[in-house]
Amino acid sequence: xxxxxxxxxxxxxxxxxxxxxxxxxxxxxxxxxxxxxxxxxxxxxxxxxxxxxxxxxxxxxxxxxxxxxxxxxxxxxxxxxxxxxxxxxxxxxxxxxxxxxxxxxxxxxxxxxxxxxxxxxxxxxxxxxxxxxxxxxxxxxxxxxxxxxxxxxxxxxxxxxxxxxxxxxxxxxxxxxxxxxxxxxxxxxxxxxxxxxxxxxxxxxxxxxxxxxxxxxxxxxxxxxxxxxxxxxxxxxxxxxxxxxxxxxxxxxxxxxxxxxxxxxxxxxxxxxxxxxxxxxxxxxx
Length: 286
Known about the structure:
The chain has 286 residues and is of the alpha/beta class. 43% of the residues lie in helices and 14% in strands. The protein has helices at residues 5-9, 15-32, 38-55, 78-89, 139-145, 148-158, 170-176, 221-234, 236-246, 264-273, 275-285; strands spanning 67-72, 95-100, 108-109, 115-116, 120-121, 131-134, 163-167, 184-185, 201-202, 207-210, 213-216. The relative contact order is 0.12.
């Protein structure tokens, strides 16, 4: 097999597979200069052979040119975005833009003040996109829903996007953009009951697919959501490789995780704490 290794590896989104090859190239130079041990040189050759073994697996699409836009707005929930971003950015050749709703490229702070640097402004992104992605939050989400500029951008991108997606209360933003009418969808449990206000059909699942609308439930469901998109774009074996890369084999140390499986005293109190958030989202549907 012959191929241009560097062109294959140096596209955006090569975190999983590029690193071993780039290490091999460095090792080759070091060997020529006598700066690497025979054992490390042999290990690098083993790494290269294993990479090509992975490429031979039936149904795996190692390289693509997907165009992905992930919305950043003040007050977003970081894990809603970071979980899917890991999987999207690990797709070799994919271009992932973090698109700010702000007027400049200053870091955007999450609801818990984790700031993430955007790569583009709304006006700098042109479709068609393979994935249009919107994370959730609470008050920050409500502010975006009331921002006509952001909603108009989402609506425009959705017209040509291959997949229109969200995690957590990001589905409220899709609903405000008029994208969930008659669609099966999910959201964070704290806002799930509001989905019908936006014409959606609520489904109690971690990932819900209805045509090209793909929604994930709350926060950690973004990991399952991200793997679902990778499987759709690159095949299940590629997604399996990335799941292993992420060592995603959860063993929660406490019970719960849903309203139905959490101690009722905890679940009822937590559900009540989201009453004002739900009402904000309902008011924005009017």
